[in-house]
Amino acid sequence: MAFDLAQYMKDRAALVERTLERQVPSRNGRAARLSEAMRYSLLAGGKRLRPILAIAACEAVGGAAENCLNFACALEMIHTYSLIHDDLPCMDDDDLRRGRPTNHKVYGEAVAVLAGDALLTDAFRIAAEPSRAGVSPELALHVVAELAEAAGSVGMVAGQVIDLEGEGRAFTREELEDLHNRKTGALFVAAVGGGARLGGASHQQLEALRAYARPLGLAFQVADDLLDVEAATDHVGKRTHKDADRGKATYPTIMGIEGSHAFARELVRRAQAALEPFDERAEPLRALAAYAVERKQ
């Protein structure tokens, strides 16, 4: 029987949603608007791809989804904080995210900034609380440290700065790859690596899974660049053609549409090749690599 990726993603996303609801509850009192703003963006749906990748990596090495649920939720909280901040007027200045008004359009810029800050900070509290008993402090520390590196000043935040400062100037393909390995790819590698660690991966398994995640993260970004050019706003749930409007370098501007599609397919091939040592438990990871470039939003 063929693997059903749609059902797998639906089931794992539901598991993540339930855990997020519990980990980021509604709160009363004078700071109630903060939790409302956090939940507005965090529980707005989305692909939940990063937490699903963490779960799939955990399962690929013989772990159970429950082993890494807190870590998976921390990933989604960090991703959501980055989207809230990306959309701010001082950044990409977007009015629409996942088909509805962006956080600052609903709650104002100050609360949106603080909602992002709170999600980022709380993510590390949750990641530091293992989902199951028996996770050693040393292992938990490694997972949290790798997540911080991916999200911080050498990873995602560095990529954002490079992206902002690069508006209006030409990038080489190597420069663009470095940008997106930080801005997008670092969190993909952290998701897969952290999930694998929490599932009990050996050193060899961990290295193979990181070799899978690196081209996957880049393929996802190439597909994002293509969607910005080829898709309609009402289909993807956010403003399209914004990269060109802001003078940003993208894969289609450097490689062309067809060249970008071919590059994305090659990256998927590399990712899937890295999974050759794994058995059928890695089938979700294989399917997710193809999904990264075939998705329509």
What does this molecule look like?
The chain has 14 helices and two strands; from the N terminus they run H-H-H-H-E-E-H-H-H-H-H-H-H-H-H-H. It has 297 residues and is mainly α. Strands 1-2 form a two-stranded antiparallel sheet. Strand 1 and strand 2 form a beta hairpin. Helix 7 packs antiparallel against helix 9. The chain starts with a helix and ends with a helix.
> What is the CATH T-level topology?
Farnesyl Diphosphate Synthase
How helix-rich are the residues, as a percent range? 55-70%
Query: What is the typical, i.e. mean, pLDDT?
Result: 92
| Tally of DSSP helical segments | 14
H/E topology pattern: HHHHEEHHHHHHHHHH
Beta-strand proportion: under 5%
CATH architecture: Orthogonal Bundle
Biggest sheet strand order reads 1-2
Low-confidence stretches: none
Shape: globular
End-to-end CA span:
27 Å
Overall number of strands: 2
**Class from secondary-structure proportions:** mainly alpha
| Name of the CATH first level | Mainly Alpha
Topology diagram in text:
Layout: H1 5-23, H2 32-42, H3 49-60, H4 69-86, E1 96-97, E2 100-101, H5 103-107, H6 109-127, H7 137-151, H8 156-165, H9 173-198, H10 203-230, H11 233-236, H12 242-245, H13 251-273, H14 283-294
Antiparallel strand pairs: 1-2
Helix pairs in contact: 1-3, 1-4, 2-6, 3-4, 3-9, 3-14, 4-6, 4-9, 7-9, 8-9, 9-10, 10-13, 10-14, 13-14
